[in-house]
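Friendly challenge for the regulars: who can give me the structure tokens for this chain first? No prize, just bragging rights.
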Amino acid sequence: MRVGIRAALVGLTVIATAAPAVAQAAPSRTVTVQRMYSFDGVGDAVLLVSGTIDPGKGRGLFATVTGEADKTGGVPRDVFFPQVIDLDTRGAHTYGAIGDRDLCKDPQTVCGQLADGTFGFGTSFTVTGDDTHQWHVRFAIVARGAKVTIKEKMIGWRGHDLRGIHQLTDDDAQGAGVAAVGATAGATLTASAPAGAKGSVAIAAPQCDVVGAGAVVLSGPSGTTPGLCPTDAFGASADHGGTWDVTGPVAGVASRSTRLLVLDL
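First reply, four minutes later:
Bragging rights claimed.
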């Protein structure tokens, strides 16, 4: 059996360069869509998810993470391709901060700035099997903004809402960053968030994904995961409650202000 991953932007059109956000009045409220998709089985399965995020005049967020569990209904044991993208009226922070950079890093998702100034994303996740090996695949999406639209189609997959999310930014973390060349510069990272009692996935996003130096550690109920700057986001999971911490003597420049994102499963 093999897992085939292919990326496509479903029902959306992405332009090659970042377009400026359209100036318009936006609702003061923030909408958050937080979904976990699960496949437990041996046969073929297809997951299609697409949507848009309009951050309005506030802050938006797009995050995804893939995992593999040990059993049906289980919490992910291993975490792959974690990504966090901050959004605001300027658009997606990971594009054009310093040089041109791909918006979505995980291979099953395509995303970008749309012509109307909103952020668009699309995921196509295909599992192809030989009817012998049992797979337990997990995929989570968080979309936050003044307005969020999402479409999903599942063949063999199941979807449900996450129990909650905890997002810590430079405004919350010790060693807050400052604006620099359209990115964020900061030093010395300390951020903490609770881990859900029924399981959680934590994503650390140190302030050194563009350039930087230093070491950062993500620690939680399941142990510690180290990172060495410069580094993109990295993650870990736990099947019981506690606290997630991301710490380290880090100096660098980042394309986002989120430092720790915890998904309660």
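The first strand starts at residue 2 and ends at 5. Residues 208 and 221 are 25 Å apart (CA to CA). Your move, everyone else.
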